[in-house]
Design goal:
Layout: E1 3-7, H1 11-22, E2 26-30, H2 36-45, E3 47-48, E4 53-54, E5 60-62, H3 67-71, E6 76-79, H4 86-94, E7 102-105, E8 110-112, E9 117-119, H5 120-128, E10 137-142, H6 147-151, E11 156-161, H7 165-175, E12 180-185, H8 188-206, H9 208-212, H10 218-224, H11 226-246, H12 251-254, H13 257-268, H14 271-280, H15 285-292, H16 299-314, H17 321-331
Parallel strand pairs: 1-2, 1-6, 2-5, 6-7, 7-10, 11-12
Antiparallel strand pairs: 3-4, 8-9, 10-11
Helix pairs in contact: 4-5, 8-11, 8-13, 8-14, 8-16, 8-17, 16-17
Length: 340
């Protein structure tokens, strides 16, 4: 099969190694320069502490100092780092990047460049062009996939996007399994945009209970807040559709795995939803972060800080009232309020 090099040893990157190995690929999991201690622990027993599971026996696990050697003849490179590491990732692969060598992007996020929203695949292409060929082949994998579920081989669906649908089809055949089903699309823009901004809206849906009735007791809210949650899901998806269309994505993508599917998983549990709960309970963002989630990365909040100032300046609050409310709550440390 293929030599797949996964860069990053966090939960999702490590979970992604399972279907890669199960397809018979020679699969490497290489930690970043910040993950040497984690890799040492994982190498000792093949046990990943965050996933709480043993990694595949045939998975080759290495520290960052071996990355250059391992990349020399890679068939596929997988970006499993956080969004803040995209520039670092591009620099690491630049000397080994050959024309149209497939890159699979697991990372979710957006950036702003020259007064424009930039997807991470666009950012990688922009960065790589400074080092190598213009012929850069990037796919994005997104969808409702919790890392622990994939690592335990729970039946999972994801979507793989590449501008060339034939490349998407070929790559999907290398990673799909009986427990990890892959849909394909050429709408990489819509898939990346949906996969990123759902983190913002999942915080809002996580705030449903606190926002459901400001006068009701906690007991009543616990029992009956789902009406509010459903209303916020509907409004969130509507805004996501407008946002994807405004940024040249396909609206139908929002109603698929990368949009509505991923929004569901994020809204019913996880870090974004938990931060939303605190905001809905009346805490200011900085207070909630310090008191409850000090050392926890909240992807939706980080994204809000990354693109928030641009959104507030260049978009209309009338078109995106929910997005404006959560961005103002995060960026300006304002109490979360919804104008119903």
């Amino acid at each position: 099969m293929k030599k797949i090099v996964i860069i990053g040893a966090g939960s999702m990157a490590s979970a992604f190694s399972f279907p890669c190995v199960d397809n018979g690929n020679t699969t490497y999991l290489v930690g970043t320069h910040l993950e040497d201690d984690l890799i040492s622990k994982v190498q000792e027993k093949k046990f990943h502490p965050a996933l709480n599971i043993n990694l595949p026996n045939n998975l080759i696990i290495e520290k960052y100092d071996k990355l250059d050697e391992i990349l020399s003849n890679a068939d596929i490179i997988v970006a499993g780092i956080s969004s803040v590491g995209i520039d670092w990732f591009t620099e690491q692969i630049s000397t080994h990047y050959k024309k149209n060598l497939p890159i699979i992007l697991l990372t979710k996020g957006l950036s702003v460049f020259k007064n424009k929203i930039l997807t991470l695949s666009e950012k990688i292409k922009k960065n790589l062009k400074n080092f190598s060929s213009d012929e850069i082949n990037i796919s994005a994998v997104k969808g409702p996939c919790l890392a622990s579920g994939l690592a335990n081989k729970m039946r999972t669906g994801a979507v793989l996007a590449n501008e060339n649908i034939n490349i998407a089809k070929d790559l999907s055949s290398l990673i799909a399994t009986d427990y990890y089903s892959i849909e394909i699309t050429s709408d990489i823009n819509g898939v990346e945009l949906s996969g990123a901004i759902k983190n913002i809206y999942s915080m809002l849906i996580g705030a449903s209970k606190g926002l459901s009735n400001l006068e009701a007791s906690d007991d009543i809210k616990d029992k009956y807040y789902l009406n509010t949650a459903a209303s916020l899901v509907h409004r969130s998806v509507s805004e996501m559709s407008k946002f994807i269309e405004a940024n040249n994505g396909n609206i139908s993508t929002v109603y698929g795995l990368a949009g509505l599917g991923d929004l569901y998983v994020s809204a019913i549990g996880g870090r974004n939803s938990l931060m939303g709960k605190y905001l809905g309970d009346g805490y200011l963002y900085l207070e909630a972060k310090e008191k409850f989630m000090k050392n926890i990365t909240v992807e939706g909040a980080e994204l809000a800080k990354e693109i928030g100032p641009f959104i507030l300046k260049n978009y209309s609050k009338e078109d995106f009232p929910l997005m404006f409310n959560i961005i103002e709550s995060i960026c300006n440390n304002k109490k979360l309020q919804i104008d119903w």
